[in-house]
Amino acid sequence: MFKSSSLATFIGLSSILIWASLVAVVKLISESLTPISAIALIYSFSALCILVLNGLPRFQQMSKVYVWGCGTLFVSYEILFLLSIALSHNHDQVLIIAMINYLWPPLTIVFSILAKQLNYRWPVILGFFLSVFGLLLVVNPDILDLAQLMHILQQNPIAYFFAFLGALLWPCYSVLTKKYAQGQNAVPLFFMVTALALWGIHFVVNEPFIVPQFKMWLVIAVTGGFVGIAYSNWNQSLQFGNIKLLILATYFIPVLSSLMSMLILDTRPQMSFWIGTLLVTLGAIICWKSTSEMPSE
């Protein structure tokens, strides 16, 4: 548990930086191995890292809604998001999947307002739609051409659907964690279940297993460790940090993730990408200025 709200907020911001690089790194690892086994290996190391840092949580003291409800949302989101990356056909689709997934920051604002965790003024509606419009512009530069949008989505409908469903589940997890966690942290359990579920999917689909080389083992271990640390910190930051500032920072994940993916995956976005990121940033600032945390009871 973090004693300082400022420290909890800072730690949460570091999690956002780790997430921003996650999509591209996971894609590179999955290209070197079989996709599902690659993400299962990453999350196995993540679960191990969290267990070493936090130990097993005391489930008897935790809210059942938190353990079962938030746990189900967490595991479902991780599996859907990771599978959407694994199912991508090329690096351009990875960027689209990332943008669809990163609808969750503006949705978190909406869900937090509906859950009465944030006060708001009417400009937040403008900020929300500007952010969504910017994200859509990144996905489809000819944003008014619905036929082109459908053509893009039909190239990999399952992966895009998984990413979109994940974008709905993560805000639910964030809001419910804020309400029901009560200072507890079950993320070690959530990661263990996620890793086991991924291995289960790997065996069910009868995917071959490629033994990683030594350098790849190092990459997997480091990636898994950072992912585990990021999620553990985020869970604590949601409870003790400045949720308004953290939500603002999440709006910049699409920008950071796209920039890192552009460098790591060697992709070159069009001018519409930069226009879209500008709209996302503008929408984020408007939402941030138009909301405030509810007073503690």
From TrEMBL:
<feature type="transmembrane region" description="Helical">
    <location>
        <begin position="93"/>
        <end position="115"/>
    </location>
</feature>
<dbReference type="GO" id="GO:0016020">
    <property type="term" value="C:membrane"/>
</dbReference>
<dbReference type="InterPro" id="IPR050638">
    <property type="entry name" value="AA-Vitamin_Transporters"/>
</dbReference>
<feature type="transmembrane region" description="Helical">
    <location>
        <begin position="271"/>
        <end position="288"/>
    </location>
</feature>
<feature type="transmembrane region" description="Helical">
    <location>
        <begin position="158"/>
        <end position="176"/>
    </location>
</feature>
<dbReference type="InterPro" id="IPR037185">
    <property type="entry name" value="EmrE-like"/>
</dbReference>
<dbReference type="InterPro" id="IPR000620">
    <property type="entry name" value="EamA_dom"/>
</dbReference>
<keyword id="KW-0812">Transmembrane</keyword>
<keyword id="KW-1133">Transmembrane helix</keyword>
<comment type="similarity">
    <text>Belongs to the EamA transporter family.</text>
</comment>
<feature type="transmembrane region" description="Helical">
    <location>
        <begin position="35"/>
        <end position="53"/>
    </location>
</feature>
<feature type="transmembrane region" description="Helical">
    <location>
        <begin position="7"/>
        <end position="29"/>
    </location>
</feature>
<feature type="transmembrane region" description="Helical">
    <location>
        <begin position="188"/>
        <end position="205"/>
    </location>
</feature>
<dbReference type="Pfam" id="PF00892">
    <property type="entry name" value="EamA"/>
</dbReference>
<feature type="transmembrane region" description="Helical">
    <location>
        <begin position="217"/>
        <end position="234"/>
    </location>
</feature>
<feature type="transmembrane region" description="Helical">
    <location>
        <begin position="246"/>
        <end position="265"/>
    </location>
</feature>
<keyword id="KW-0472">Membrane</keyword>
<feature type="transmembrane region" description="Helical">
    <location>
        <begin position="122"/>
        <end position="138"/>
    </location>
</feature>
<feature type="transmembrane region" description="Helical">
    <location>
        <begin position="65"/>
        <end position="87"/>
    </location>
</feature>
<protein>
    <submittedName>
        <fullName>Uncharacterized membrane protein</fullName>
    </submittedName>
</protein>
<feature type="domain" description="EamA">
    <location>
        <begin position="158"/>
        <end position="286"/>
    </location>
</feature>
